Amino acid sequence: MLQPNVLQSPVSPSSALPAASAGLPPLDSQAFLKLLVTQLQHQDPLSPADPSETVQQLAALTQVSSLQEISALLRQLLGKGSSYDPAAWLGRSALVPSSKALPREDGSYAGEVLVDGPTELDITFTDANGVVVHTEHHVSAAKGAISFNWEGRVNGGAVKGPLTISVASHGGMPASVGVWTTVTSVRGPGGSSALVETPLGSFTPDVVIDLK
User: Do 92 and 191 reside in the same domain of the chain?
Assistant: First the structure.
């Protein structure tokens, strides 16, 4: 008498998952679905997998996937939290649109000039008496920002501000000049209606070019 072939006992997707202690990376949704399809293809026809259990596992997988996406979004927003909350800008350096500059804590003057294409620039620093204290030449091969950072010293002595920054362009007009300053306080209800106070004056958060 022929004996029926011995079939493997069915394995549920949950029992097929590798144990956490095995040191294997967790399954993502694609790997789980492949494992599920393989299990269904090789299930025991005399004892098939419970459809309700499969549906529950799929629902759980969808929920976990959604939670992971929400968690990633929250981490992204938290990482940018200071950009959305001007109150968190206190004491930080802000790049603001201004042709006036004051020395930073180390006595230097720094900022950026935004150009609309390839150009050569002469950046000139003039004191309150109209005396040119520093000039530097920059070349830009493409559209973008040209950074400048002058130590703020002439003949070994610190140059006191405020200084006026002027830009002469040779081929293309600079779109704007921004200088780095320190956020000393924040006034107002918060958000875009707040006023960011700096030694160079007050600015709304939306005109602040950069923050660090």
Answer: yes
